[in-house]
Amino acid sequence: MSTPTLHVSQHPAVLHKLAILRDQTTEPKKFREVVRELSWLLGYEALADARVRPMQVATPLETMEGAELADRIGLVPILRAGLGMVDAMLELMPTAQVWHLGLFRDERTLRPVEYYNKLPTSASVDLCLILDPMLATGGSATAAIEVLKRWGAVHPVRIKLVNLIAAPEGVEAVSKAHPDVEIYCAALDRQLNGVGYIMPGLGDAGDRQFGTGKSD
Questions:
Q1: 109 is an active site residue
Q2: Is the dihedral of CA 67, 70, 72, 76 positive or negative?
Q3: Helices and strands per DSSP (H, E), number in the chain
Q4: Going by C-beta distance under 8 Å and a sequence separation of 6 or more, which residues neighbour residue 210?
Q5: CB 183: neighbour CB atoms within 10 A?
Q6: Burial class (CB in 10 A: 0-12, 13-18, 19+), 190
Q7: pLDDT tens profile 131-162
Q8: From 32, 36, 204, 208, the catalytic residue
Q9: CB atoms within 10 A of CB 89
Q10: Which residues face 56 on adjacent strands?
Q11: What is the mean pLDDT of residues 22-28?
């Protein structure tokens, strides 16, 4: 699948951790740990083009020109599964603002329903990272991007989507609706099944993180 805005990591550490995440025998505690580790690695890649500005740094030997982050970063985890990705991102960017957006998928229509929105009154960042482990139908991601754009996250504010696993259907939906949004993920899987789950996927990311329900 050739999509200019799609970035699928090929890093060996990502591939190794992803296999652990997919394994149905991986228990919630380990699952949460690996979600955090993968999120850190994907965040590192997604922030590779973040802007910096020069600053003076006094080393023990002399003063030199260094760099500091110029972009103001906003993290938007999609509740509830996206919560597991936040801490890793804050390790990378401790000054990032964290907002919460609650969307759930109607199991009958597979369409997203917004039930919680904790965005500030106006856009106050230069780069928004939407965090959600799974990009399945693309409905929730598309809706989240639309919410951010209505809120004010439009050019020059950039929006990026960070997922652990994506389905071709979801990538196509997001790319068609929002061709200006880049997608970073650890894997592009084969397809969705009849009820909108990614195949081969890893089951329900929220249930597996929090020990609820039954994993596929």
A1: yes
A2: negative
A3: 6, 15
A4: 28, 80
A5: 25
A6: exposed
A7: 999 999 898 899 889 888 887 666 667 899 99
A8: 204
A9: 25
A10: 65
A11: 93
Nearest to 132 by CA among 169, 157, 159, 165: 165
Candidates 59, 63, 95, 109; catalytic one: 109
Annotated domain spans of the chain = 6-52+66-210
> Taking the complete model, does pTM exceed 0.85, yes or no?
yes
Contacts of 66 (CB under 8 A, 6+ apart): 54, 55, 56, 57
Q: Taking Cα atoms as reference points, which of 187, 189, 142 lies closest to residue 168?
A: 189
* In contact, 7 and 183? CB cutoff 8 Å: yes
Type of residue at 71: D
Name residue, tokens 């598309």: 142
Map residue 59 onto helix, strand or coil. Answer: coil
Which one of 105, 137, 150, 190 is the catalytic residue? 105
CATH class of the structural domain 6-52+66-210 = alpha beta
105 is catalytic: yes
The strand order across the sheet containing 187-188 reads 134-135, 165-166, 187-188
